[in-house]
Specification:
The chain has about 140 residues and is of the alpha+beta class. It contains 3 helices and 9 strands. It has a 4-stranded mixed β-sheet with strand order 4-1-7-6, with helices on both faces.
Length: about 140
Amino acid sequence: MTRGTDATAAAEPIRTVAAVIRDGDGRVLLVRKHGSSTFIQPGGKREPGEDALATLARELDEELGVRLLAGSARRLGEFEDAAVNEPGRRVRAEAFAVEVEGVPQARAEIAELAWIVPRPPFPVTVAPLSAGHILPALPSG
């Protein structure tokens, strides 16, 4: 019985919240974690009792040292694809376009930042979730 429960848990997607941060030129910020070669949206997993925007505010502070501007979040949707940092798993992210205060810097588990034009060809390796779902969901401009 435990074996079936473990298999079910492994089949469940990893639930996250993702931020899309744009600069004045329309580029989007992506991050690369230590030990990975693939860039993803900033964000992360919810803590118990946390709502999506509280998670984003916490993660953006921890990972980038920026403050989520109240009222700026616009939900883009919920998307699922292969998880790049956990082989064999899928990730499902609720994505929001947000504005932040401060200058993003690589902190905590983040090794590198990249500001990219949100359409191919990308100058870095971009996760399938971002490249195939989140970035295409952005409004033009």
